[in-house]
Amino acid sequence: MDHTTRIALLIDADNVSVDVLREVIHRLQASGDRLQHRRAYGSVQKAGEFAEVCRDHAIRFLPSTFAGPNATDIAMAIDAIELVLRQPVDEVVIVSSDMDYSPLIVRLRELGCRVTGYGQQGKSGRDIERDYERVYDQFSVIGPAKPRAAVKRAPAGEVRADAAVSPASPRVRAPRAPRPTKAQKVAAPVALPETPVAIPVPRPAAVPAAPVPQAAASARSRTRRPAAKAAAPASVPALAATALPAAVEAVLEAYPGLRGGALVRLNGVAKALRDGGLLSQSGRTTSLFKKLESHFELVPADKPESVRFRGA
User: Fold this and answer.
1) Structural domain contains residue 166
2) Using CA atoms in the order 200, 201, 207, 210, what is the torsion angle rounded to 10 degrees?
């Protein structure tokens, strides 16, 4: 008799990382159970991020093209109920750090399924873990992957010992003349306009006194104007560094993809803002961007689905 457990693996890609998903799959495969269904749900941006792991483990990624922060949750909940009702499934494994799945978990257990959950450390708060321990048959938190050791690089201009042994090594290069710094590059064009400035030469004493001051004054006015223009480029760098409001800079730090000015789906931005603590679980993304409408544009205006950074 076959006692293999038939598992439906459902992944909320908007709420876990690729490393956490790899660890979950490793644990499930090591148990010897059968992963009968493997599906991942998330935004269009997440589809590219999870493409490799989905290809390696035959996971169907179902991107959500609907606006709204809960579009992914609803799609996954609908599929979970349909799978349990239509096909024999012994256990449903939900990979998510979201706390909105409690009603789904209770309903799946009523239908006779064992429900196991995996969350990501740092995204699953202690209150979420405590609540999930009440509804899940088993809930585990997986820590992030350990960061790789940083590679120590030699200072600029220093030749490695192993490279010096081999004359054919591509790392051994002839010394080059030092390149001009940015300050030197900027200073050169600024100094050029000062060279054509003409200095008025005093006329001989035989010239009448009255015309001399007028001509000299006109000459001085003509020669001083280029000097005033030459001083203008020195103030350009100060004007270029226009500071953004703190709220706008915080949004761009949470979702750097907005800096380029391209249209970005609101559901992907909402996830990043919640992870960065800029938006609560019940907060509306459109309300946040309407407060910053001088820097962000919602598209379309009547029923926004995307957002674009207008710039400073």
Assistant:
1) no
2) 30
Q: Which two tokens stand for residue 41?
A: 């749900």
Contact 118, 142 (CB under 8 A): yes
Domain finish residue from 142, 173, 199: 142
Q: Which domain holds residue 74?
A: 6-142
Establish if 270 belongs to a structural domain: yes
pLDDT tens sequence across 58-92: 999 999 887 677 888 999 999 999 999 998 899 99
Asked whether the whole model's pTM tops 0.70, one would answer: no
Number of other residues whose CB lies within 10 A of the CB of residue 252: 15
Number of domains the chain contains? 2
* Burial of 184 from C-beta contacts in 10 A (0-12 / 13-18 / 19+): exposed
**CA–CA distances in Å: residue 289 to residues 178, 234, 293, 294, 311:** 47, 36, 6, 9, 13
Q: Which amino acid is at 246?
A: A
